[in-house]
Amino acid sequence: MDDAQRETLFLTFKSVIDGIIADKRENPKNAKRLDSFQARINIGLHVDVDEIMWINLIAKDGEYVVERETLQEYDLELIADPEDLMFFCSGQYSVMHMMIKRNSFGKRKLRFKGRAYGKLLALPKILVLDKVEH
Amino acid sequence: MVLFGTPEWADLYMEAVNSNEAYAKAADWWEGDFIFLVDPFGGLDHQIRIWIGLYHGKCTGCQILSENDQFKLLEKGEEPSREPFEVEFSYAARMDVWERILKNELDPIKALLSGQSKVTGDMAKILRATQAAKELVVSASTIKTEYYGE
Prior knowledge:
heterodimer, A: alpha+beta, Nonspecific Lipid-transfer Protein, Chain A, 5-stranded mixed β-sheet, 40% helix, B: two-stranded parallel sheet, 26% strand, globular
């Protein structure tokens, strides 16, 4: 993956997370949860066998900001193949699926580090799209 | 064989989408036109812009934009003004990437998540339509297409 592709992937993931938060904001039932969730999360996008591209998400006071690189101080560190992570965010892959199944590199689809289990358990409510009946 | 990105190809693509029952089912709720942007690479020396009208599982039109045609990317929630080529989404990639996608060698979502293509528009809506996106590609792969430099 070259620098231009890394930049495109960063912008894609930023727009994925921004899009999900904006979509969840449209449902007033999500407001309290979105406003109260506080976390500093390093997200490793496993883009190749031996290459992880790091981005981070800071959730504070109802604002969600995605930036490049890692945070020195963090609550959670997640590593996943970007495609698996996107299917998790779209609701196609459950947490259980992500924890148990292996990705194309032979690793668990979702690996995590950190002791903030409460924040980890809250993630599906924050980063997974609400189901919509079409 | 039909050359990719020509009006003849656009007509065949519209037919192919409208013959794809899996697309009709996956996108029966979808409303939102696309512009496909094909950036020069290899034997292609200019950008190709393809407008695709998509409404409730059907392709309402497919057209290659000329140099003088302008398209407008609508903001989320923005009402169209009924001018031609107002779209909700664009999907852009280089010609070689498009060729691999249209030959079913590269999944359009994988292309997006490896930084080889980029999409602009409401990502939440796109995330809910990944199967439909794949079926749009399946439709294209049914056309016997000649690419630039072949």
